[in-house]
Structures are given as C-alpha cells and as structure tokens.
Amino acid sequence: MRSTRESAVILADHVRSWAEAGRVVGAELMVLEDGELVVHEASGWSDRERGRELEKNSLYRVRSMTKPLVATAIFKLAEAAELDLDDTVARHLPAWDNPRSGAVTLRQLLHQVGGFEQSAWPQPLARYRSLRAAVDAMGEHGPQHPPGSTYRYSDIGSATLGAIIAERTGEPAERILSEWICEPLEMRDSHFHFEVDAPWAARVNSTYRWTVASGRGVGGFERYWDPSRAQVVPFFRAAGGMYCSIRDYARFLELWLGLGEWKGRRLISEASARAALEPGPFGRYGMSWDLPTTARAGQLPWAFGHGGSDGTAALVVPERRLIALYFTQSRGRDLMYCFAMRAGDAFELPGPMPKWTELARETELELVSLDAAQRRAIVGTYEFGGPDKRLEVFEVEGGVLQTWLRGEEVQLVPLSDRRFALGWHRGGAGVELRCDDDVRLVFGLAGGQAELMEIRREEDVLATGTRVCRGSRG
C-alpha cells in the first residue's frame, strides 16, 4: 500500500491538472493524516476575469456542506433534552401540525426520508422574508411522498431543522452554529451570512457555472456570482449558506473523526456521533452524512463525507485517520465526483461513495461536435405513460440542444453522438440523456435521486415498480 504522502501527491497532481486544463477555474486540496498536514495546494483562479489567483485558505460557499453542522446542533439539543430525534416536527413548529405534515419526524429529516423532493418549496426561497416563513409554508404544503417511504435528498429537511434550532434556543440558527460549533473549534474563517461590506468579503472566491456556448459542444465557465453582489437568499438557509476556508472545515471534520471530541473538548457524545454515521432506512445516507454502500448498522463506516453543489467535497476515512478536502467554485462539471473517484484510487480505498462516483467517469469524457442531422435525430417530444408525461428536446439559436427540467430550460452537453450530460441549471440536479441505435433516450436525475426514464420510439409500454418508463416520440 502507498504511503499517505505518496497517495496525496497523486491526488494533488489530478487536481492541479484540472485547473491547468480549464476543467475548473480554480481548486484547493488539503489532505491530513492524524491531524498532521500532508498536502495543501491551490491552483488556478479565485476570479479569472479580474486576474485574481486562488489563494490557500480563501473563503468558499460550501452549500450543502452546511447540513452536517446543522445536524451537530440538533444532536446537542437532543443531548440537552430540548428535543428528541423521534419527535414530530409539529411538536416544535405549529404550522406542521396538520394531516399533510404531522407525521414527519426529525430523524426522518436527518436521514433524508421525510418525503420531500429537492426544490419543492411552494415558491422560490428568496421570496420568503425569513427561514421560519419558508419552513412554515412548507409545513402547510406538506411532503410529496409519505414520510419514511422513500429516500429523497432535499434541502427542505435541513432548513426545517434550522428553524427548529431557532425555535428551541430563541436565537437564530446561524448564531447557534457559530457559538456552539465554530467558536469551540476555532473556526474563525466561518460565516453564515454574507454582506458585501463585511470585513471578510474580499476573501470570498467568485462562483462559476459551466455553460454550453454552441451546438458544436464548445463550453466554458461563466462567472455567475462574485463578492461585489449580495447573496440571493436574504437569510441563512440552514440547508446551505455557510462560507468558510478549507482549513476551517477540516477542523469540523476532525471533530467527527474524533467521534464528537476535538483537542480534548467534547462537543457531542460519542453515542450521537456513532448513530449519525450509521446508514438510514434506505442504506445510503446517515444523519446528514454521505456513507459508502457497504455501511452497516452498529459499526463505523470505512468512510464518510459530504459535498456542496458549487463543487466542494470532503472525505473522512476513520481507520486511517485520514481527511481529504477538495474545494472549488466551479459548478456544473461535477468534478467533485471525479475527486471522490480519484481519491479512492490514490488512497486505495475499498469501494465507492454512492452519490459521489455516479457521474465521475462521465464527466471525464471529452465533448464532441454534433452536426445538424445528428441534432435533428434527437429533437422532438417524447411521451412516456401518457400525454401528461412528456420530455421535450429542442434546438435553439446556435445549435444548442435543450430540454426542460422543473420548469427551467436546461442545456444538453454532447459527450458523444449518443450521450449527453447537463450543462447547468439553477436546481443543481444532474441530467443524463442518451440516444442509442433505436433512439432510446434515458433521462435521469443525478445526486442520489432515484428517477430514471427509458424512452423508445417504437414502444408504448409503461413499466411499473421499477420507476422505468418507456414511450413514443410525439
């Protein structure tokens, strides 16, 4: 087996090559073994247009990597007998006390089995005046599936837990995370609300998204946010919203590697930490932690971690006392999945992390050019299971192929003449569209969502039980 140093150098070479090749605008890598720094590198740009190079320990929007901090605060409240993980949300938030939402429990939200789809807010989150207003509206609206019946990764769970933290403590959730977690862990570069005039604002990296420039498959990153602009959602979202350095997040991971203890100080009990690292009802997600497919109840997983939709990712391997973090603000090419795959190869880990390796080999393919005839062969409306269920693929100016996902136009990036990947869209879910010899299209939601539709021109059969639908071209 390679030494940790040898493995970290191999991983660093991969990350550096992505920045040099323009596959990310910039990236930072940190690897620690038993609390000692092994590798720490930064490559590429913090703001490409302004010629600002990426610096070590600059600040990132870590998005969903906020969720484990929210869970940690919930565990502290449970240990203080302020709540029980098996409480219904309705016990703490009256707006949830109705037939639609009354059965949802805190434990279900932690395990992502509360029944909520991603981005299922009754209206865009930015339109609400506060986190509590958004969560109350969601409680009145109710989940899309019976609570506990299915795994669905959704921001609504952690947002609701954030509102419960505020309700039980009488303080904003972000203040509790700062006082209960960041201050004891000396996470001085961690923040939960952005203001353009904040003294730390200039250290925040600009954020980029991958877009398709033409139907020839030419794509690139465009800057869609920089620290001269206010954040879109005017309040702390709890499912995301944290800004921090890679070193700060490493400290938080050290707490969890220590099963709730950091430098002799215990923040949560070992029992809480071990429970959080056990798989949930559908075996793929702990309590706000991604787990390997081999995770089993009653034992520590060989690895755990989490990712964020702007490209950040972290991996912890308890047996080897290993922490690896990959931070970028280049959204849309899913290289955090490639990071998980390359980390597994470099450190010779025993298996995949489920959500993190699904698209890894796909995103390492080169883009291709499609001619007009190839594009015309794909354009059309596909029915599956009836006229109310349709997938439309259309061509816009410049030869760009697009489809619709959750009410948004989504660009399709050609990886071959038969396989496509998502360019970018605000919802953050991945899309795969494949075309084989019989013009079957496969349209799936990545990021752990169990949706897959196979669509054939010559068939009109709706399969049941497997969530696979076949239909005809309209």
In short, what is this structure?
This protein has 474 residues and is an alpha+beta fold. 24% of the residues lie in helices and 22% in strands. The strands form 5 sheets. The protein has a 9-stranded antiparallel beta sheet with strand order 21-20-19-18-17-16-15-14-22, with no helix packed on it. Strands 3-2-1-12-11-10 form a 6-stranded antiparallel beta sheet, sandwiched between helices.
Structure characterization notes:
With 474 residues, the chain is an alpha+beta fold. The chain has a domain at 372-473. Helices cover 24% and strands 22% of the residues. It has twelve helices and 22 strands. It has a nine-stranded antiparallel sheet with strand order 21-20-19-18-17-16-15-14-22, with no helix packed on it. A six-stranded antiparallel sheet has the order 3-2-1-12-11-10, sandwiched between helices. A hairpin with a 2-residue loop joins strand 16 and strand 17. Helix 1 (4-20) packs antiparallel against helix 9, helix 2 (67-79) packs across helix 6 (173-182) and helix 4 crosses helix 5 (155-169). The longest helix has 17 residues, at 4-20.
Binned, the helix content reads: 10-25%
Class from helix and strand fractions: alpha+beta
Q: Compute the CA-based radius of gyration.
A: 22 Å
Weakly predicted, low-confidence segments: 214-218, 354-363, 423-474
Give a quick account of the main beta sheet: strands, pairing sense, barrel closure.
Answer: 9 strands, antiparallel
Shape: globular
Strand content: 15-25%
Distance between the termini: 56 Å
> Kindly state the mean pLDDT as a whole number?
82
Order of strands, main sheet, comes to: 21-20-19-18-17-16-15-14-22
Total E-strand runs? 22
Discrete helix count: 12
